[in-house]
From TrEMBL:
Amidohydrolase-related domain span: 69-454
Protein's UniProt name: allantoinase
Biological pathway: Nitrogen metabolism; (S)-allantoin degradation; allantoate from (S)-allantoin: step 1/1
InterPro entries in alphabetical order: Allantoinase, Amidohydro-rel, DHOase/Allantoinase_Hydrolase, Dihydroorotase_CS, Metal-dep_hydrolase_composite, Metal_Hydrolase
Gene Ontology process terms (BP): allantoin catabolic process; purine nucleobase catabolic process
Family note: Belongs to the metallo-dependent hydrolases superfamily. Allantoinase family.
Subunit details: Homotetramer.
Record's keyword annotation contains Zinc: yes
Length: 476
C-alpha cells in the first residue's frame, strides 16, 4: 500500500489532483499530484485510482480529472491590460477573468497602452497599485525601454519586472516612443550583466513603408476597406530589416533578446543563423498568425487588424512548421483590445483602425484547433504555451510544468471536445474578436491557481480574485 500520511503537514490542508492523462516530465501518464500551501509537494507517477487501493487519501479535497488532460496552467507572456489610463480598453479584472476561463494561470502585462506606461520605477508602482486585489490569475509585468529612460532600467529589474519591451517603429501611443539604434546601445549597456531580457517589436520603417497608417497618406486609388491595402503597407521587409538589427545587437552585447509576435516567416533563417553564432535570442508568434490568413479576411473587418499584419496562407504554413521544428520557441495571444469606436467599423477603414486583436481567453483552444493539421501534440502545447513562456518571463522555477516545488497551477481540459465561440462567453471587456462563431477544439473544464479552483465550467469563476502579482523573478 502506498499510503500518504499528512502528519508532517500541519499548516495547510493537503489537496490532491489526479487523472489518467497528467503531463509530468515530458510524458502523459496516470498520476496523482499532492499540493500543500499552493505548491506541488509530491507526484506519484502511474498511480490513478478512484478507489483507495493504490493511494490512501486522507485529504478532504480531491480533484479528479478522470479522462481529461491535467497539465500545467498556460502562461501567456504577451497581454496588454491597459490599466490604469486606458481602462476602457481592458482592465486587470476582466483580462484575468478571461485568462482564467481560458486555462491560463499567469499573464505578463505589456508596458504600453496604460497611462503612465511602465517605463520608470514610479510608473511600475502605479501599475502595481492599480492591479492589486483584482486579479483572478497571477500577473507579471514587463517594463519598457524608451528614449532617455536608461537610468530606470536597473531599478526596475531590482523591483521585479520580467524584462523590457521596446519598439523600433511608432508604437501607436504617444507615451511610448520608439527607440533608435543609438538608444539601444545605451539600453543594452545598462542591461549587460542583469540577466534581464529585451523584447523587440521588430518592424522598422524602411523606405517610407509603414508610415501610411493614416488615410491622408494613402494613395487615392487604394481601397481602405480591403485588407490587402493594409497588408501592402507593412510588408515582410519591415520585419526582416528590424530582425537583422536585433541579431546584430544581441550578438554584440550578449544581452538576452526576444522577438515578439513574429509574423514574417522570411525572417526565420536570420534568427536561426544568429542563434547558431551564439546569440541568446528567442522568438514567439501569436495565435492569430497561426490561425488566420489574409486571403480570408473580409472587407471592412477591422477587428482582424494588428501589427505586424496577418499574412497569407503560405506564410502561416511556414510559421507552423517553425513551431513544430522549435525554430519558434513559444506562442502567445498578444491580446490587445480597444474600445469599438477605435476600430472604425462603420467605415471599415483598415488604415484608420487601431491595430490589435483580442483573444486571451481562447489561446489554448486556438492553438490546439489550428495545430491538428500539423500533428501538434499536447507536449508541443505545453512547451509553447507553458514552459517556454515561463522561462522567458523569469518564472521558469515557479511555473510552466508539473514539478515538485513549483506552483500548483493547472488546467484540466478535454482535447476531444469542440465548442463554438459566442459573444456572451467572452470575459474580456471589449468583445470584438475575429473568432465569434468559430468552432474550436479543446474545452477548458477547470483552471487551478496555486491549488485553488479559480474556474470551473459548471460553476464559473471563483468569487474571490486569488491572483498574485509576480515580482520574484529568477532568470535561469
Ligand atoms: Zn503586443
Amino acid at each position: 500500500m502506498n499510503k500518504h500520511t499528512f502528519s508532517s503537514f500541519n499548516t495547510y490542508a493537503m489537496k490532491v489532483f489526479r487523472g489518467k492523462r497528467v503531463v509530468v516530465d515530458g510524458e502523459i501518464i496516470p498520476a496523482t499530484v499532492f499540493v500543500e500551501g499552493g505548491k506541488i509537494v509530491d507526484i506519484q507517477r502511474n498511480i490513478y485510482s478512484q478507489d483507495s487501493n493504490s493511494v490512501e487519501l486522507e485529504s478532504e479535497e480531491v480533484v479528479d480529472a478522470g479522462d481529461l488532460v491535467l497539465m500545467p496552467g498556460v502562461v501567456d507572456s504577451h497581454v496588454h491590460v491597459n490599466e490604469p489610463g486606458r481602462t476602457a480598453w481592458e482592465g486587470f479584472s476582466t483580462a484575468t477573468k478571461a485568462a482564467a476561463v481560458g486555462g491560463i494561470t499567469t499573464i505578463v502585462d505589456m508596458p504600453l497602452n496604460s497611462i503612465p506606461s511602465t517605463t520608470s520605477l514610479s510608473s511600475l508602482n502605479i501599475k502595481l497599485d492599480s492591479a492589486r486585489g483584482q486579479c483572478y490569475v497571477d500577473v507579471g509585468f514587463w517594463g519598457g525601454v524608451v528614449p532617455g529612460n536608461q537610468d530606470e532600467l536597473v531599478p526596475m529589474v531590482n523591483a521585479g519586472v520580467a524584462g523590457f519591451k521596446c519598439f523600433l517603429i511608432n508604437s501607436g501611443v504617444e507615451e511610448f516612443q520608439h527607440v533608435t539604434e543609438e538608444d539601444l546601445h545605451i539600453a543594452m549597456k545598462q542591461l549587460v550583466g542583469t540577466e534581464s531580457v529585451l523584447l523587440f517589436h521588430a518592424e522598422v520603417d524602411c523606405a517610407g513603408l509603414g508610415q501610411n497608417n493614416t488615410k491622408e497618406e494613402t494613395a487615392e486609388s487604394a481601397d481602405d476597406r480591403k485588407y490587402q491595402t493594409f497588408l501592402e503597407s507593412r510588408p515582410d521587409k519591415m520585419e526582416v530589416e528590424a530582425i537583422k538589427l536585433v541579431c546584430k545587437l544581441c550578438l554584440q552585447y550578449k544581452v538576452r533578446c526576444h522577438i515578439v509576435h513574429l509574423s514574417a516567416c522570411e525572417a526565420l533563417p536570420i534568427i536561426q543563423s544568429a542563434r547558431d553564432s551564439g546569440a541568446p535570442l528567442t522568438v514567439e508568434t501569436t495565435h492569430h498568425y497561426l490561425n488566420l490568413a489574409s486571403e480570408n479576411i473580409p472587407d471592412g473587418a477591422t477587428y482582424f487588424k494588428c501589427c505586424p499584419p496577418v499574412r497569407n496562407k503560405k506564410n502561416r504554413d511556414l510559421l507552423w512548421k517553425a513551431v513544430m521544428s522549435r525554430e519558434i520557441d513559444m506562442v502567445v495571444s498578444d491580446h490587445s483590445p480597444c474600445t469599438s469606436d477605435l476600430k472604425h467599423l462603420d467605415k471599415g477603414d483598415f488604415l484608420a483602425a487601431w491595430g490589435g486583436i483580442s483573444s486571451v481567453q481562447f489561446g489554448l483552444s486556438l492553438f490546439w484547433t489550428a495545430g491538428q493539421q500539423y500533428d501538434v501534440t499536447i507536449l508541443d502545447l505545453c512547451r509553447c504555451l507553458c514552459e517556454n513562456t515561463s522561462k522567458l518571463a523569469g518564472l521558469g522555477s515557479q511555473k510552466g510544468s508539473i514539478t515538485v516545488g513549483r506552483d500548483a497551477d493547472f488546467v484540466i481540459w478535454d482535447p476531444e471536445k469542440s465548442w463554438s465561440v459566442k459573444e456572451q462567453m467572452i470575459q474580456h471587456k471589449n468583445k470584438l474578436t475575429p473568432y465569434i462563431d468559430t468552432t474550436l477544439k479543446g474545452n477548458v473544464s477547470k483552471t487551478i491557481l496555486r491549488g485553488n479552483v479559480v474556474y470551473d465550467e459548471h460553476t464559473g469563476l471563483s468569487e474571490k480574485p486569488f491572483g498574485q502579482l509576480l515580482l520574484d523573478i529568477k532568470f535561469c
